[in-house]
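Look over this record before class:
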Amino acid sequence: MAADVSHETTASRATDRPGDASPFALGLLLRRAHWRAAAVMAEALRPLGIELRHFAVLMVLVDRGATVQRDLAVATGTDKAGIMRVVDDLERRGLAARKAVPGDRRARAVEITPQGAELFDAAHVAAAPLAERLITELGPGEPEKLTDLLTRFAYPADGEA
């Protein structure tokens, strides 16, 4: 059964090309920007033997301290099975450790190890020169303005997701 959708306005097809007037244009442009930034950050992490998914978990652990796996999944946008694989990887490398949660026999909290904190710091050092590549096309003050705009976009004042 076909959806009852008006086909009157088909002039603007969704693309991520500059100047696209489609209602999907902003989302597609943000997706392309994410891919570019992720590729550069993955390049910084590769020599350290981790991927962005590992680094995302380390970021949460540095920020929040020991965190239960279900909360790690939510914080990183990962499903339950995915977060278990990432934590398994980190634990195998000695970068994180699971520990029992008092009062909940089934829950496990994950905490960063000293080696994990050391790698986290090394990742920032490795990423700094590569991150400069992301902003080479921007003029004076524009990186800060872009950061401000994206922050307000990602974290709206009204708390809307």
About this structure: The mean pLDDT is 88.
